[in-house]
């Protein structure tokens, strides 16, 4: 996504006919445009993503920022209007529990209840725990080329940026309480206030009953657990808001136009929207996205460790494949485990090839109105979003990731050089320099094969029907030894033999090829595999399987 900043600099509507491409970011962009139009000002549309810095950025963080960036891109393509993306860190929030994945956990227990910007960094590299995690967040987002502005809750509160909005909260304090109170348990219902004063002596974020609220003075009066009474200004960083009220206050104060959130926050979005209206502004437009599931359909939990991390995904596939996974149907729950990586990678490769062809046609046509159909089709492609509106040269690969994985499996590839030997025999023109994406896929395929494919390989013996068909395939392939048969010709041959031996359904013939020859349940278009692996090598592969069968 490194082209994002350059893409947003060209703020002209990309689609002149007014047609809206059938891709979910454009539907969200339409909602955003309608929201902005009701405000009647010329400010850039403000899109926000939130981050709780008590933990490190994770794959969900990537997903939310990427998806919001795609809505931003679609909005600019539709309207030509400028936008801003604000990555907001709630770093004034209190440390509520000690994370499991940090050092010096015992030290952190002493700071429960303190604002995260006042909690020492357990890693010992920054001035506070929040500063450490904020830096990690920005480094994380920068590594993907996201175009954003970073915002610190502590800085916004202490600088007075929220002061006017905080005074407004006091003016409508009882109305906000009336909205939130019915959602609380009996005990909390009696003490709830949207205001959390900072204890002037201990520095803790206090969750206490307000004895008095004074909108004119801009203060709240409250009593701590020791019975000492305090009057605290809500401005200047001396207090912060409870998080649902904080979310609403932020929308109101900053004029946020769009923010998406997970399905688990549906009730919070509804309540914050009501509070935002009480404050005097409409809540932003937004999308509710579904959550991630593990391979067993259970909700992903960071504490359980039953999901993939960004680092794990990028060990086995390029970042574009992760973007592809995030782009697909955000309204549906997704299973996030290692098996989805090859599929997501090949899906990206298929889209980027088609998008590159459409882009070439659009460039050739210039601003001609008759090219709008191609522009609309291009904007429907996930690759157009993944590459921020411009498909770079050599973004695709002449060989699919699944094909490389199968090649690595059959060739027992321990190093990329093994795969490059087959690739150069297949096409002498390919190299890491001319095909950088292919080079990345080759490197990742070797790692994926080593970690997942090789340990799971399990060959089965063919039955009598399969034995005869495999023998027939080996004999038929001998006619192509020494010739350069295309993948299509070889695929047709494989089909013909499956039909000749009456496999019903025909898919069972291909399942036989995968399980008997490759040692796995799924595989590539077999004609393409033969073309890449080589006719003679494939014959040898079949003969080895026949020998195993005869010896069994």
**Shape type:** elongated
Task: Examine the secondary-structure arrangement and name the CATH architecture of the largest domain.
Answer: 3-Layer(aba) Sandwich
The secondary structure category is mainly alpha
- Quick one: CATH class of the largest domain? Alpha Beta
Question: What integer value in Å does the Rg equal?
Answer: 29 Å
Largest sheet: 3 strands, parallel
The CATH superfamily of the largest domain is identified as HUPs
Low-confidence stretches: 1-10
CATH topology title of the largest domain: Rossmann fold
Question: Percent of residues in helical segments?
Answer: 40-55%
Number of strands: 12
Domains (count): 5
EC number: 6.1.1.6
GO molecular function, one term: lysine-tRNA ligase activity
Protein name: Lysine--tRNA ligase
Subcellular location: Cytoplasm
Layout of SSEs?
Blueprint: H1 4-9, H2 24-39, E1 45-51, H3 59-79, E2 83-89, H4 105-108, H5 129-143, E3 149-152, H6 153-158, H7 163-171, H8 173-180, H9 186-191, E4 195-197, E5 210-214, E6 219-223, E7 229-233, E8 239-241, H10 243-254, E9 261-262, H11 266-279, E10 288-289, E11 292-293, H12 310-316, H13 319-327, E12 334-335, H14 340-365, H15 372-380, H16 382-386, H17 401-411, H18 416-426, H19 436-456, H20 464-477, H21 487-500, H22 507-518, H23 526-533, H24 535-551
Helix pairs in contact: 2-3, 7-10, 8-11, 10-11, 13-14, 14-15, 17-19, 20-21, 20-24, 21-23
